[in-house]
């Protein structure tokens, strides 16, 4: 299994070897997803929602007075993403990072736009954590988001735009980017809560002494999930910190407070991750202790059985010797007396071990 994962990582790395910087090479696994461009164009008074059938239509929203959110699904279609990049004057390295789904979360500042990469986390139907890369381009009056598929955590943002709830339609594109990042971070709490429940259930099971044979596999899976979440969350703190302390023209002062709130949430999530990470290590130690205790119980039973039969074996061996002159051998009831002595020894030892609470 380890060799297979290493081989996959090597193949992903080879896709970039020898390529010209700025070459679009998709490294994800969702190559069967269709290309879709979803567009929300809104002002304080109204909102329009459309699905763009022609990729060239996206260019018409670049210089509007309204705020536009264009959500692109399907990173496999690099030619169409390159076309959008040309329409919005995106740097080739930005486009390269968009289709490279193994990109570490980061922020790049350009004169006319900001480029942010972060990881969106959610559980699939099999209760496995899905890590999907979301790339955000913030412009003066627009926000572009790039995803691998249509599954995301932005449904609540769509509803707020449609219904005009909250401040989102009354503020600029920097607030829209805040709302999108905040939706991703809020979903981190759901991931953390689920992980915490799993850890507590395993901890309760181990404390009760009812550990299953495959519980070590579950602990290892939880450990990998926590490391996966940690790799996604920790770099985002640096991104929000740069936005909060930066003075980019696209981020207005009134919005900085909201980004500061995201940073506080990330600190809380990070602390929980560290706590759960320590708990996982404790679970591994607890599991090993449980296994050791089981082994000790087995050894204890075997030791008690050996202690009981050692004197009985001694007596049996003593009177099994082939000496001619052994007085007890001529005794008529010698055999029954020996059996009686052995029975008394057996019962006495059992009583002694019971009194000592060894059995």
Note the topology.
Layout: H1 2-14, E1 36-42, E2 47-52, E3 67-73, H2 78-87, H3 92-99, E4 106-109, E5 114-123, E6 129-138, E7 142-147, H4 155-163, H5 173-207, H6 215-245, H7 253-318, H8 334-355
Parallel strand pairs: 3-7
Antiparallel strand pairs: 1-2, 1-3, 4-5, 5-6, 6-7
Helix pairs in contact: 5-6, 5-7, 6-7, 7-8
Would you write up a description of this structure?
- This protein is of the alpha+beta class.
- Helices cover 54% and strands 14% of the residues.
- The chain is built from 8 helices and 7 strands.
- A 7-stranded mixed β-sheet has the order 2-1-3-7-6-5-4, sandwiched between helices.
- A hairpin with a 3-residue loop joins strand 6 and strand 7.
- 27% of the residues are buried.
- The model has no long low-confidence stretch (mean pLDDT 84).
Structural class: alpha+beta
The third-level CATH topology of the largest domain is Beta Polymerase, domain 2
Using DSSP, what is the number of strands?
7
Radius of gyration using CA atoms only: 34 Å
Residues in β-strands, percent: 5-15%
CATH fourth-tier homologous superfamily of the largest domain: CorA soluble domain-like
How many separate helices?
A: 8
Strand adjacency order, main sheet:
2-1-3-7-6-5-4
Whole-number mean pLDDT: 84
Order of helices and strands: HEEEHHEEEEHHHHH
């Amino acid at each position: 299994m380890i060799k297979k994962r290493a081989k996959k990582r090597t193949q992903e790395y080879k896709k970039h070897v020898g390529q010209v910087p700025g070459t679009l090479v998709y490294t994800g696994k969702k190559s069967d997803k269709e290309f879709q461009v979803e567009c929300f164009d809104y002002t304080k008074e109204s909102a329009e929602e459309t699905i763009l059938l022609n990729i060239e239509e996206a260019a018409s929203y670049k210089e509007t007075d309204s705020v536009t959110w264009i959500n692109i699904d399907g990173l496999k279609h690099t030619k169409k993403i390159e076309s959008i990049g040309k329409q919005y004057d995106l740097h080739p390295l930005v486009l390269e990072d968009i289709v490279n789904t193994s990109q570490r979360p980061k922020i790049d500042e350009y004169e006319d736009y900001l480029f942010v990469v972060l990881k969106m986390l959610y559980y699939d139907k099999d209760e496995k954590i899905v890590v999907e890369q979301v790339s955000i381009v913030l412009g003066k009056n627009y926000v572009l988001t790039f995803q691998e598929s249509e599954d995301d955590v932005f449904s609540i943002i769509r509803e707020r735009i449609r219904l005009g709830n909250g401040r989102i339609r009354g503020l600029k594109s920097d607030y829209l980017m805040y709302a999108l990042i905040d939706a991703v971070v809020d979903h981190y709490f759901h991931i953390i809560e689920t992980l915490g429940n799993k850890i507590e259930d395993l901890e309760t099971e181990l404390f009760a002494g009812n550990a299953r044979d495959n519980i070590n596999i579950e602990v290892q899976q939880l450990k990998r999930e926590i490391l996966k979440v940690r790799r996604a969350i920790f770099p985002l703190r640096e991104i929000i910190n740069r936005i909060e302390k930066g003075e980019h023209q696209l981020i207005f002062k009134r919005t900085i407070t909201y980004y500061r709130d995201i940073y506080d949430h990330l600190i809380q999530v990070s602390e929980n991750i560290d706590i759960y990470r320590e708990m996982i290590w404790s679970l591994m130690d607890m599991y090993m202790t449980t296994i050791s205790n089981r082994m000790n119980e087995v050894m204890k039973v075997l030791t008690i059985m050996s202690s009981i039969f050692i004197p009985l074996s001694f007596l049996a061996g003593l009177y099994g010797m082939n000496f001619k002159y052994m007085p007890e051998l001529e005794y008529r009831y010698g055999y029954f007396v020996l059996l009686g002595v052995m029975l008394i020894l057996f019962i006495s030892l059992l009583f002694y071990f019971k009194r000592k609470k060894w059995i």
